[in-house]
């Protein structure tokens, strides 16, 4: 499979990979490792602002790259909405040149993000 330069960069470097811990950290996950795609986001939130975001993923290079991009671009954003940083699934698909047969995996990223944001909003 061919990957665009952005996908290769984020897959190979995976900025934001890891976990966060502490009283202001909220977690959300989606997917299933047995089905080949699982994503988790940890958000550190203070004063309604996302101060840091990390991700873990068991997934294909497109999914790992897109998750890394989301985590990297989440900092400084308000936690008031559940939208993915930088746009939605369609924007991620275009940015990372995700083939049609793999676009459903981007919905798992979105579900994990929404779960993390919802966790933060329910505190």
Describe the structure.
This protein is an alpha+beta fold. It contains 4 helices and 3 strands, in the order αβββααα. The chain has helices at residues 5-13, 61-74, 89-95, 104-121; strands at 25-32, 37-46, 49-58.
Distance between the termini: 42 Å
Task: Decide which structural class fits the backbone.
Answer: alpha+beta
Helicity, in percent?
Answer: 25-40%
- Using the alpha-carbon principal axes, give the shape: globular
Instruction: Give the uncertain stretches in residue-range form.
Output: none
> Count the helices. How many?
4
Strand content: 15-25%
Topology as a string of helices (H) and strands (E): HEEEHHH
The residue-averaged pLDDT reads 94
Biggest sheet strand line-up: 1-2-3
Main sheet record: 3 strands, antiparallel
The radius of gyration computed from the alpha-carbon positions, rounded to a whole number of angstroms, is 13 Å
According to DSSP, the number of beta strands is 3
């Amino acid at each position: 499979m061919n990957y665009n330069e952005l996908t290769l960069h984020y897959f190979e470097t995976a900025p934001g990979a890891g976990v966060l811990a502490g009283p202001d950290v909220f977690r959300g996950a989606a997917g299933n490792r047995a089905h080949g795609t699982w994503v988790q986001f940890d958000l550190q939130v203070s004063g309604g602002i996302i101060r840091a975001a990390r991700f873990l993923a068991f997934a294909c290079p497109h999914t790992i790259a897109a998750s890394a991009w989301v985590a990297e671009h989440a900092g400084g954003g308000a936690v008031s909405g559940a939208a993915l940083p930088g746009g939605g699934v369609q924007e991620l698909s275009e940015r990372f040149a995700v083939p049609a047969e793999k676009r459903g995996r981007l919905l798992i990223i979105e579900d994990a993000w929404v779960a993390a944001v919802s966790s933060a909003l329910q505190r």
